[in-house]
Amino acid sequence: MPAIAPPDPRYSETQRRTIDAAMDLFAEHGVSGTSFQMIADAVGVTKAAIYHQFKTKDAIVLAVAEVGLSPLEDALAEAEQQPTPEAQRELLLTRVVELAVARRRWVNALQGDPVMIRLLGSHDPFVDLMARVYMVLMGIADDGPTERMRIAIISAAIGAAIVHPLVVDMDDDTVRTELLAVTRRLFDLPD
Amino acid sequence: MPAIAPPDPRYSETQRRTIDAAMDLFAEHGVSGTSFQMIADAVGVTKAAIYHQFKTKDAIVLAVAEVGLSPLEDALAEAEQQPTPEAQRELLLTRVVELAVARRRWVNALQGDPVMIRLLGSHDPFVDLMARVYMVLMGIADDGPTERMRIAIISAAIGAAIVHPLVVDMDDDTVRTELLAVTRRLFDLPD
DNA sequence: GTCTATATCGAGATAGAC
DNA sequence: GTCTATCTCGATATAGAC
Prior knowledge:
The structure is a homodimer.
Chain A: H1 13-29, H2 36-43, H3 47-53, H4 57-80, H5 85-102, H6 104-112, H7 114-122, H8 124-138, H9 145-161, H10 172-186
Helix pairs in contact in A: 1-2, 1-4, 1-6, 4-5, 4-8, 5-8, 5-10
Chain A binds a DNA duplex through helix 3.
């Protein structure tokens, strides 16, 4: 096992620089509010150089979504290997909270932006991924409105609370601890 | 007291048509993703006609925010008249949930869009309004991280959960009931 | 992989007639 | 209050040289 995580083989090093810059800009201005020029400026090259890496702006959005969601994929795979539904749910919840807090600024762009939502909703791999996430979070529970609302609130709360004005100036440790405590409580998990 | 709510005197009837159309479009495409032309088409007039009502696009965004937040202002004023902090909090929570669910599609645009967030954060009346809302929701509780996170989660959850994929096809009554139950529970209020 | 240069389109915005 | 016509700029995108 390598000491550091291997780079995502789906994209080259130069592409990753573009993706990282785009992620920052999407988080700050939204997808529609971010132009090719802004991305090129942030990377420090011209628009044409970016177009050499990605044929369209949609391709960049897709790449940002893929790279942004890949830690979630890993966490889900790890969780699904747990023996019981309870253990699966518990591990996934912990990982998701950790990931979300560590990458607060980006999570917002990924789950809140209308362009991103449309893309994620029309791209099967993303739909399947989220379906699996919700399945694990639901666990053995029934599929009634109460349980569905509970999952929705927990998912939404994690994504939206971490960028809330009341929370932006809190350090990651505190946010992670408090968020985990509240979500565990919503799941009726022991403290 | 009139049988129907009086129209907001801040804007004319034609302006209200524009604001309503813009609200729909902002909710669907985001502020940056909505052009003047799209608004004009939705209203059924030309761009120039819209420019006669609002000097800039920012003015429309501001108007949408003002009209969108005015029910919240009313609810807050009503809540602040309650005798005890507990009663204030309880009434505001109930009203906010009702409002949010009734206007689900728009709440998302108001609280999630980067342009809107920037506007709301730089416009004193909005900052003051939200400060008052948080003050009532905090109630007599301390200002520690646990309580701040709790308010952030509840606020975020209300805004984000109502548009969550798991919830979009649920009827308003169910969403309101379940959301109220969960948020009341987070506040340690009796069922 | 990056550049300059250019094409094309739609954006926000204004002028002036009706 | 709405229209047609127009301006200017920045957006996505492409061609072809280095």
